[in-house]
Amino acid sequence: MHSLLEAIDAQRKISDWNLELVLIDDGSKDNSYKKIEELAQNYPYIKGIKLSKNFGHQIAVKTGLSHCTGDYIAIIDDDLQDPPSLLPHFFSYLDEGYDVAYGVRKKRKESFIKKLSYNTFYRVLKGMSDTDIPLDSGDFCVMKKHVVDNMLKLQEKNPFLRGIRAWVGFKQIGVEYERQARFDGQSGYTLKKLLKIAMDGIFSFSSVPIRVITILGILGLTFAIVYSILTVYGFMVHNISVKGFATLSILISFFSSLILICLGLIGEYIVRIYDEVRDRPYVIIEKTINI
Q: H or E segment at 81?
């Protein structure tokens, strides 16, 4: 966090920004909020928000957006993979009339497995989504205030912010940059959290999974009809004996697995509907500083 603040403060002085920096403690267990309080005493433009527990990265970012007051708003993580020195270049696009300038990762200094997973996910999501979500674009971006205000109108309990950013429209441009390696510390993105974000993206911006069930049902029915006709034909015409146990076991296993997959997909949509109709607040703020 100190490294991020030093980088931002150095750029603030160079660019002569009238700056507010909103820092979110998403239920961390390493005294992050105490550090935020200490920094806020020395840097009056810092605003701090402590969430009552870990609500997840997307909720934390959404909470920060809801407390921004500036005309230009940037989303940036604290690991310096998206360096603050890029922000003036991104802001220049807003000066030219764009409403959003989002980062497009030209290169990622991460493991092969991670790069392959990210690349696959973005392309699968783009192919499935009803919204044109740009490839290889994360949350790192700059936006004008009216874009953020419209994004916050979507009170989703499982937000996928880069999808929402694309959905609200306005004049947007992708800006290529080379993403740096993590400056220090360990990534907070566990496999479980990455899967959660991936599922939020797919289930929030695509109806393809639920439609796949219908397609699978049609294919399964076609398979059953064709197999039945061939079995009856072989028995009646060629007197081929029907060996039932192995055939029955295969068919039961196949269709049982298919049913469970379909129920899981339907259940995922139902759970998300349930999250919305309960109307719980999407976040609980424990305390703030300079808000």
A: none
